[in-house]
Specification:
By secondary structure, the chain is an alpha/beta fold. Helix content is 34%, strand content 21%. The chain has helices at residues 33-63, 71-96, 148-153; strands at residues 29-31, 97-99, 115-120, 125-131, 142-144, 161-166, 169-179. The strands form 2 sheets. The chain has a 5-stranded mixed β-sheet with strand order 5-4-3-7-6. Strands 1-2 form a two-stranded parallel sheet. Helix 1 runs antiparallel to helix 2 (71-96). It is elongated.
Length: 184
């Protein structure tokens, strides 16, 4: 039977790679020291642990003979492509990275790495930490320095009110406090 008529739906699903976070063209990839270390650790894990394991599996599966119906071989080759794609992405991100360590900085002005407590009109106070595009974690209040909220907050000071333009309209945020804490 021709391979054109064979469905290979029985292969395990692999999550698609996450879309690359947006950094304005021509700009450096600002990142905290902890974020830089995480990117390097992920690259090391992929190159030194995961890729060699998959290569061994693919090699073993290829030695078993017919590769057209060999799930280990087909899945392994697909996984190798995904690992190689992620490795290339990480290498580019690390090359463009500019580590910015503002932990322990004094001052009440908002810059990269700041943890800012803000309150919207009639809302509760919330904390936002301005981090690199690769470190975003909305559940922990970490936003990218290129996000609209961060751009509105940058260079403002404690006590200032900034205007945030949202799809729902304008929102005013009052800056309650600015701190520069170590980011883990």
């Amino acid at each position: 039977m021709s391979k054109a008529f064979v469905r290979e739906d029985n292969l395990p699903e692999v999550a698609p790679p996450a879309p690359a976070p947006a950094v304005p063209p021509g700009r450096r990839n600002y990142v905290t020291p902890a974020g830089f270390a995480r990117l390097k650790a992920e690259l090391r894990q992929l190159v030194e642990v995961e890729r060699p394991e998959v290569v061994r599996t693919v090699s073993w599966a290829a030695s078993n003979g017919d590769r057209s119906e060999n799930g280990d071989y087909l899945y392994g080759k697909k996984r190798l492509r995904e690992i190689d794609r992620r490795v290339r992405f990480l290498i580019k991100r690390l090359e463009a990275a500019e580590v910015v360590d503002n932990a322990g900085r004094d001052g009440d002005q908002v810059f990269f790495g700041a943890t800012v407590r803000v309150r919207a009109q009639g809302g509760d106070a919330r904390s936002l930490t301005i981090v690199g595009a690769d470190e975003v974690d909305p559940a922990r209040g970490r936003i990218s320095w290129v996000a609209p909220v961060a751009r509105a907050l940058l260079k403002a000071r404690t006590g200032d009110e900034v205007t945030l333009h949202t799809p729902a309209g304008r929102e005013r945020l009052e800056i309650l406090d600015v701190q520069y804490l170590p980011i883990d």
